[in-house]
Fold this sequence. Notes:
Rossmann fold; six-stranded parallel sheet
Amino acid sequence: MIAVFSGTGNSLYAATLLSRALGDRLVSYSPDESLPQPSDGRIVWVFPVYSWGVPPVVEEWIERTECGGLNHYCVLTCGDDAGLTAGQWRRLIERRGGRACSVFSVIMPNVYVLMKGFDVDTEAVASLKLSRVPSRIEDIALHIEAGEEGIDDVTRGSFAWVKSRVIYPWFKRYAMSPKPFHATEACTGCGSCARHCPLHNITMAGGRPQWADHCALCLRCYHQCGAHAVAYGKATEGKGRYLCPTPPPAASIVTKSV
Ligand SMILES: Cc1cc2nc3c(=O)[nH]c(=O)nc-3n(C[C@H](O)[C@H](O)[C@H](O)COP(=O)(O)O)c2cc1C
């Protein structure tokens, strides 16, 4: 079974290709439902890296999942580097009694835009990153299929310890508030942000979106708004938008084994 949390679609893209390669069932994050027990004893967790760590929403998901007696794998998607996210995921799984077998990262288009100096990739960079995903996933699937353990094939980047052990806890505490989210004058009241929020954290009141406080900061609401009317304080002024396309049908993807 493949368990995926995805805000802007990158992790869903990777998980869909992985599900085709492994023949495993894909189950998306739900705030209300628990994961079913996998029939083959294996869960592959696919999710984005948030501030060089496991997103709190995924930590909470693992904590309410029956992990004991199962083999667990992890595929992290990130814009650049994952720091020490792999070790953090291993500890979460082992604390729940699961066997944390192997971890892999996949570089995908960046979606974080909430701080100075952070923006989406140019179209050229985003499509180059996406073009490399199918062969990377095919490679990862071979390792998982073979049941390999002890692999940490993750792009950690520089200063990994500082990023994951100092910045990540700071980020979780001080930089994940949904309070700065608001709709600008450009909002048409279409409700698309509310319909697409993976945590059902947005409701419409008087034709305007309202954010409650169980937000994953996945930025789905910001990136999917066709009117570019979702803002985060002033941090998103002048920033670009990105949504991952759905993967093309299997037959049209050229991979190294073709
Ligand atoms: C809150 C937040 C924090 C992020 N932190 C990192 C990071 O530390 N390193 C990185 O390479 N990418 C980071 N990113 C980018 C995402 O990990 C990357 O774009 C991912 O593929 C998005 O996956 P999704 O489309 O499935 O949500 C961050 C994105 C968000 C929204």
